[in-house]
Amino acid sequence: MKIHRNHDHENFLCTLLLTGDRRRCAFALRAFNVEVSKIGSTVTEDTIGKMKLKFWHDSIDKCYNNEQSYVADNPVLKELKTTITKTKLTKSFLKRLVTSRDRPKNQGFLTTKQMEDYSEQTVSSLYYLLLEVWGVKDLNVDHAISHLGKAQGLTNLLRAIPYRGRSEALNIPQEVLMKQGVSQERIIRDKVGDKAVEECIFEIASVAHQHLEKSRNLSDKVPKEVKQLFLASYAIERYLERLRQVNFRLSDQKVLQRDQMLPAVFLWNKIRCRY
């Protein structure tokens, strides 16, 4: 749980507000996702990254069978196996969390649609698994949480840009860079008053905000007890608003610093059953 708290702070706060066995299952899924998602930022060679991803991919199969294996000695996999046994999670969603991250560091996105698809695979897939923990099978809820996942995924990709190395591809699609006549170097420099760079960030932030609004427009179709899974919407909303206030400068300290009000915001809206 410590790894989850340090590497996925906002989702950690949301998960803390869940109760009972469902919270334990949610932590297991979040912890597994953290282990997979941090590989890209902790390895220097793509080959090593592929080997680590293969370990987690193969481990999913181990969690679904009853044979004795290393799963029992790995705390994350042990909890994941317990969750799978209790809730009959869809294996393909778990595997998608791994396979979607198998991409070279210098491979960027060509289009905004590719970024949305990547967000669907890496974030929405996890939300689908959480819905399975809750035992929810509803097309409207699936649509709502899919849009939430895309909004969060796009926001995460923007937030990662200030921490990308110069040899890594930036999370701005080529079609947007070409449209504004902006190089990756200008995105990295992020100079005050560079309107073209601001437009690039604004374009992706706008798509994220649109997905957030689409998710919220379906809130009346989401059962009360499930709305707590959507609390991350407030973290997305508050980040995008801070970004707007600083003219979409990703390196501004107001954007980079941790939102100290989030715990209270999450708790208040959980009590109100709103997202």
Give an overview of the whole structure.
About 65% of the residues lie in helices and about 0% in strands. The protein has helices spanning about 1-5, 10-15, 20-35, 40, 45-65, 75-85, 90-100, 110-135, 140-160, 175-180, 185-190, 195-215, 230-245, 255, 260-270. The chain is globular.
In short:
Helix content is 67%, strand content 0%. The chain has 275 residues and is mainly alpha-helical.
β-strand number: 0
Helix proportion: 55-70%
Strand count, sense and closure of the main sheet? Answer: none
Averaged pLDDT: 93
Strand-pairing-aware structural class = mainly alpha
Principal-axis shape: globular
Strand content: under 5%
Distance between the termini: 25 Å
Summed up, the helix count is 15
* pLDDT < 50 runs, ≥5 residues: none
What is the CA-based Rg, rounded? 19 Å
- Please write the string of helix (H) and strand (E) elements: HHHHHHHHHHHHHHH
Index terms:
15 helices, mainly alpha, single chain, 275 residues
Topology of this protein?
Elements: H1 2-7, H2 9-16, H3 20-37, H4 39-42, H5 46-64, H6 75-87, H7 91-99, H8 112-133, H9 139-160, H10 174-180, H11 184-189, H12 195-217, H13 232-245, H14 253-256, H15 262-271
Helix pairs in contact: 2-3, 3-6, 3-8, 5-6, 5-7, 7-8, 8-9, 9-12, 9-13, 12-13
